[in-house]
Specification:
CATH class of the largest domain: Mainly Alpha
Number of strands: 7
Strand order of the largest sheet: 6-5-7
Oligomer: single chain
CATH topology of the largest domain: Cytochrome Bc1 Complex, Chain D, domain 2
Largest sheet: 3 strands, mixed
Order of helices and strands: HHEEHHHHHEEHEEHHE
């Protein structure tokens, strides 16, 4: 056997060992997450979210129990699996947080500034949106995603979201597709789902909101997009903006058919 052949075989064996080791690490992380799921701290956010939903708040002193999330006033079960969607009373497409803001303003009498002053929690400054999102999304657990783009404004939001997903920009010339446009990518030990494929889109979308172990906080999908923009060094993605709703519509629609499985738990 020649030296070159020996080196070639050794290289192949090392490559195989590296792939096997990487796959083993991925499998172990999946087992770790499954074990954590049995005691997911998101349960605490869910309990608080239900309480916030029923609290009488704002200048009008009423609860959110008459808020229409798309299936009728007060109907929560299964509602998240059909969001974002077009709401005729607001004449716009809304995701969950945007609709909650609408209800806080119209039903409870809050100002827009007061309703949106704390979209994401930190330490002792908890966010009502994260709590509400935890409870409302949990009420859709097991429901198949069924987001529509039949209304012209829904279709428009989808097309805009698609353009945003592939748009490259910022100091690093990044796009959402830079990290989520190919299979087999990861950052450190974090798998990056390929959101251009059906299975990847379904896995990526249906596991948010999620409790982030590294932060000790439950994070919504709006936060996930916000943080992706931050990491891309893009301009800040404004809470409940048209851009955030469009990108959510694109990703949610692509996840149709999958059973919703959140709040989940992530690193």
């Amino acid at each position: 056997m020649t030296v070159f052949r020996t080196l070639a075989i050794a290289g192949l064996l090392l490559g195989y060992a590296a792939v096997t080791s990487a796959q083993s690490a991925v499998d172990e992380i999946a087992k770790y997450r499954q074990q954590l799921q049995d005691g997911n701290p998101a349960d605490l956010w869910e309990a608080r979210g239900e309480d916030v939903w029923k609290q009488k708040r704002g200048p009008k002193g009423v609860s959110l129990e008459r808020c229409d999330l798309g299936l009728g006033p007060g109907v929560v079960t299964g509602a998240y699996a059909q969001l974002p969607r077009y709401f005729s009373d607001a004449d716009r497409v809304m995701d969950l947080e945007t609709r909650l803001v609408h209800c806080m303003v119209t039903l409870q009498g809050m100002s827009l500034a007061d309703a949106t002053k704390r979209p994401f929690g930190s330490g002792t400054n908890r966010s009502d949106f994260e709590a509400l999102a935890a409870w409302i999304t949990a009420e859709s657990r097991g429901t198949k995603m069924n987001v529509s783009i039949s209304h012209p404004k829904e279709a428009q939001a989808y097309r805009l979201g698609e353009k945003m997903f592939y748009f490259r920009g910022g100091p690093h010339d990044f796009a959402c597709a830079t990290c989520h446009g190919e299979s087999g990518k990861r950052i450190r030990l974090q798998d990056l789902p390929n959101l251009t494929e059906k299975a990847g889109a379904q896995l990526g979308y249906t596991t948010w909101p999620a409790y982030r172990v590294s932060q000790g906080e439950l994070r919504t999908f709006q936060w996930r997009l916000y943080d992706c923009f931050r990491q891309q060094r893009f301009p800040e993605l404004k809470f409940t903006s048209e851009a955030s709703i469009a990108l959510t519509t694109f990703l949610a629609y692509n996840a149709n058919g999958a059973a919703f499985n959140a709040p989940a738990i992530k690193r």
